[in-house]
Amino acid sequence: MAVRIASDRSIHSFSSVMWGLLVDVKTRRQSTKRSIIRLNRTNDEGCLLRQLHGSRLDSMAKVVLAMSGGVDSSVAAHLLIEQGHDVVGVFMRHGHESPVACTSETESTNLVQTASTKSGQDHARSGPPNLPIVDRLDHKQGCCTAADAEDARRVADRLDIPFYALNLDEDFRRIIDYFVDEYTAGRTPNPCVQCNNWIKFGKLFDYADSIDAEFVATGHYALLEQDSSGQPALLRGRDSGKDQSYVLFGIARRLLNRMLLPVGDFHKPTIRKLAAGLGLNVAEKKDSQEICFVTRGRYDEFVRANRASVDTSGELVTTDGSVVGRHSGIEGFTIGQRKGLGVALGEPKFVVRIEPDSRRVVLGDRLELSQTELIASDINWLIDPADIPERCQVQIRYNAAPAPATIAPLPQNRLRVLFHQPQQGVAPGQAAVCYENHRTLGGGWIQ
What we know:
By secondary structure, the chain is α+β, with helices and mostly antiparallel strands. It is 19% helix and 29% strand. It contains 7 helices and 24 strands. It has a 6-stranded parallel beta sheet with strand order 8-10-6-5-11-14, sandwiched between helices. A hairpin with a 4-residue loop joins strand 15 (314-318) and strand 16 (323-327). The longest helix is centred in the middle third of the chain and has 20 residues, at 191-210.
């Protein structure tokens, strides 16, 4: 059932028979009351009736929304509109040469512009410039592709919001350099976290300030609520299977009051149903699962292509020092890896250590992966220092379960983590994020 979004954002309803979902929304742009969304669900999500974002938004605000072309940020745009906000959609291009994308099907109705960051820039419609966006050259489902840019444009067009593409080539170059440098140093990087830190909640705030926008929003599955002292608290998303609070731990605490995470209070199937009810073309689009700038091949091949002069090849050895083979580069390995070792030893072996100085990759048994302690650096706390607990739960990878631990701050903005039970796959370069129940306390980088 296609639904045309009314210009006054007044009332929208979808067939509960067709979608198993009833959305009843009433908003008024000048109202001091925010909209309430009622969702009657037929599955195990039950019934949700709540005011989005607590009491943090009491009137219409200008919001810059990072639009990736996926279903989450697309529905986030709708939710913000239904709350009465002035939404500006932004697609972040990273400047790799590629075929042209984002030209409008009808020039007179095109909403795509290349955005400058001049203060107070008017968001009027203009003719369609050519917008080069990186294009996928293989089967991987990533983000920031030409198709993603076009999907985001179509959603913005359907929801009748301005849509801009920001040229962040230099900033993405910093992400790529970090990615390559970490792998060549024998560490396992997490570029998605750094993208959030440096770009999505870094450069986007600069752009928001340039157009006098009060908030920056994304489609991340996490929640922001006020704690008992009135301070913003970053919480896990309601959908535990999609929770993305782990990759948001590095956001500067001072920015939490200006962040909006509209989809964090929903389960993913509900988001898809909302998108379908709105007639959005991205309703069934697959989630991005790859790194956007690795457009073909494997990560190690990408690293070598960007560091052709660096030789990282070396020996494969066991924990007793026996040489069992050679490898073409330490960038092809991560702690805990079992497949693709390039050697058969008659029994399962895992990467238990990477030695960048000697360029050796050390293989061992599963038990030799276990660690009870780690040191993390560059800690970013999202709570007051006085509130740092002695015990909490620590998550060492995006898909890992948080583990009970005792923590102790160290000099030079570091943190010691003592796990109550041995943990496997503690990889230098990955993030160690601290939680107290559902609240994200902060985290840092495993050394």
